[in-house]
From TrEMBL:
Domain AMP-dependent synthetase/ligase: 73-263
Class of this enzyme: ligase
Coiled coil: none
UniProt EC number: 6.2.1.3
Reactions catalysed according to its record: a long-chain fatty acid + ATP + CoA = a long-chain fatty acyl-CoA + AMP + diphosphate
Protein name from the UniProt record: long-chain-fatty-acid--CoA ligase
Biased composition (Polar residues): 1-14
Amino acid sequence: MASSSTMKNGLSRSQKAKSPMTREENVTDSQINMNKNKVTPRLWTIHRDGEVLLRLSKHGPGHETPLTIPEFFRESVSRFGMYPALATKNSEHWEVLNFNQYYEACRKAARALIKLGLQRFHGVGILGFNSVEWLIASLGAILAGGLCVGIYATNSADACQYVITNAKVNVLLVENDLQLQKILSIPQSRMETLKAIIQYKLPVKESNNNLYSWNDFMELGNSIPDSQLDQIIESQRANQCAVIIYTSGTLGNPKGVMLSHDNGEKADLGLPGGGRLVARGRHHGICDLNVQSWAALVAQRFSWRPGIESHVGLPAWSLLLPLPVSLPLSRSL
């Protein structure tokens, strides 16, 4: 069963479409004056805290009122709560998180990030290869009002430093000691926004007041109330930035691309040969949702595109951001 916060905050698209009218009925004079001074959104922005103009089509999935990633996540949890969301193989055993568990883990990570001082529209850097921790941290960053900033595991220390500075990263997650040593080689004076580092794979060999293991990190936010996190989630808008994806910096400094909430929500990878991730019929359900089968599906779909192999060549958050990724697919259940 979905959590109380899930049921409380989950809104249907029809309800979401009506909410702006409801808000306008109760605005104060000061709010009206603030709205007069507000800059009208444009089709693009170079500011992390900016808003872009939403463009809706007259027909198809593009005509529906866009959701933020947290709203889409909550909707997925309310529909698929007990179904598998993530699966990872440790030794000989598969460990599976259903949607309820996945969502609660992401909220726990979000509260920990708030405790560490994550500021609105500042980055949470993730330096390492795909993992369950990668995904939980990425969505936790977005829930907490920050920006998910993936960093190539092959980046040099200089390239990492540039991304940390450019995205104003407050919290950095590194996969292992190899990546940690790369970051520790950078003078602290060149990473002024960085407040804490989390190493999400053991063993943690260094000892530092601002360095945490994954387990310690996940317990940091126990004192942060759910209401504080919910307030941040409700303040987010679909036309605001949620993710920054950087190039590797092979030629010059890495280049960042900002992706809005509705950009992530509308991601539709498509299915080859009419295949489905759902079993249609008397008993509806999601089938075969482990990481390997999903990666194989994506690899087949994008086999014609050079440089994209399996799920490693695509942003981790876009592949397992709460499945099913395809909005029409989730609506068909």
